[in-house]
Amino acid sequence: MEVATANMGDVWRLPEQQQQQQAPCLETTTTTGEGKARGLVASVKKTATQEEGEEEERGSKRLRTSPTSPSSPPRGRSPEGPPRGASPEGPPPRGASPEGPPPRGASPEGPPPPSVDKAAGHKVVVTGSTGGKSSSLEGGRSVPADLPWVNLLKIGQGTYGEVYKARPGPERREQGAIVALKRLLIRDDWGFPVTSVRERKILLALQHPNLHPNLVRLYEMYQPSPESEDVYMVFEFLELDLEIIIQSPAVRKLDVPRVKSFMQQLLEGTDYMHRRYAVMHRDLKPSNLLVSRTGDLKICDFGLARTYQSGRSYTIPVITLNYRPPELLLDCRKYGPPVDLWSCGCIFAELLERKIAIPGRTDVEYLENIWKLCGPPEPWPEAKRVCPKWQTVTDDLADKGLERSVRSRFAAADELAAPLVDKFLRLAPSSRISAERALDDDYFWSGVPALPAEDRALEWDVEMVRAARDDQQRSRRR
Ligand SMILES: Nc1ncnc2c1ncn2[C@@H]1O[C@H](COP(=O)(O)OP(=O)(O)O)[C@@H](O)[C@H]1O
Ligand SMILES: [Mg+2]
């Protein structure tokens, strides 16, 4: 481990070679900090849990080899080669199925593929500074005056922190023109919040030089001083998120190629998390999908993400209510990646209709709306073992004459999209389509193609889109 000392304090940087090997190893990245980062790393150590995956299941069967629309094949299905971020040897191992053994997620023996794209390489650093002076910030809490970023502008208020748009100062030129700073709220009696620890662990694991294009890039973790209550996560900046786009009156229409492009990118990122790193995101929703003015979509907010292993139990208050799958509402603790695919279905449906697909302000209300839309649950052989409530509730529903109306409802918005929505919104998790199979679905391979990567810049003015959404929200609050 190389520990460099700079004027601003001790800086921990991994040499590029080491980082390539270590970044995907959760344990290594969370237990090897030195210098000023020690306080932060120590608290990571305290909360870190062993989440190793099981045996990697290798396989490279391709579901389909050539697109029906050669002008715009889904990324990753290109006959020219693997997607950016994928292994140069071929597709990553299979194993996202809840029944089958998952791929080795964050195994120390399983480093990422060697870098084939030097330009995409970058360092994630944990930095500290000796600064401590505070200056106030309009509309926010005070921030230290001598941060290495300037012109902070608050752009988001999340559950666990504030997000600022900022300009890197001279010490951070390599981070480009603009970054997003996520300032984590640290409470004295809590120490570093567990969700932030997770977010950092998982993001570091996913940030190897061949970072997948549909996952947000983390440049740095910054703690102004070891005693500081603040920690900043420094991300690449993207102008919008999908919630803003869906809600903004400045976006008159989301046409089919655009919806396809968003869904394809969401599924590419999800597939990569699931199969290559055995990570469940557990909070996929439009506001956690960032969108750049060039039309790129990136998954962010890994605060609830974690690695999974077949047969293990997990906590259930995860996933924002209107994107939460029925098994979680019915107390299933042995869940797996299909939870994210339910959320993908809700996001897809929301893109089609520009409104929340399954409303509900309480668990009960939401669950009732699920039954109304999805009808009686399909048999789920594992239910008795992993989700006792499932059987009771679904037996009760059997004679209520419920009818599934997913296809007919969404066909009104897009006839060709409805069958795929139907495959995501399956009540039994084992019947739900995987991200890999969804990418191979006819929806992406027939009809109008998705916007190609080189031609998907947003057709709307991003500032207007954001301002129109904000105006609308303000007038609704009045
Ligand atoms: N890298 C980024 N670039 C631009 N905006 C961002 C970025 N990261 C987050 N945001 C904005 O801030 C909001 C909250 O960030 P998020 O990471 O989701 O925090 P939380 O865990 O508090 O929800 C997002 O919904 C998005 O609008
Ligand atoms: Mg969020």
From TrEMBL:
Pfam families: Pkinase. The keyword Transferase applies. SMART domains: S_TKc. GO terms for cellular component: nucleus. ATP binds at K182. InterPro entries: CDK (IPR050108), Kinase-like_dom_sf (IPR011009), Prot_kinase_dom (IPR000719), Protein_kinase_ATP_BS (IPR017441), Ser/Thr_kinase_AS (IPR008271). Residues 1-119 are annotated as: Disordered. PROSITE patterns: PROTEIN_KINASE_ATP, PROTEIN_KINASE_DOM, PROTEIN_KINASE_ST. One of its GO terms (molecular function) is protein serine/threonine kinase activity. Residues 89-115 have a biased composition (Pro residues). Keywords: ATP-binding, Kinase, Nucleotide-binding, Serine/threonine-protein kinase, Transferase. Residues 149-444 form the Protein kinase domain. It comes from the Eukaryota. Belongs to the protein kinase superfamily. CMGC Ser/Thr protein kinase family. CDC2/CDKX subfamily. May form a complex composed of at least the catalytic subunit CRK2 and a cyclin. This is Cyclin-dependent kinase 2 homolog.
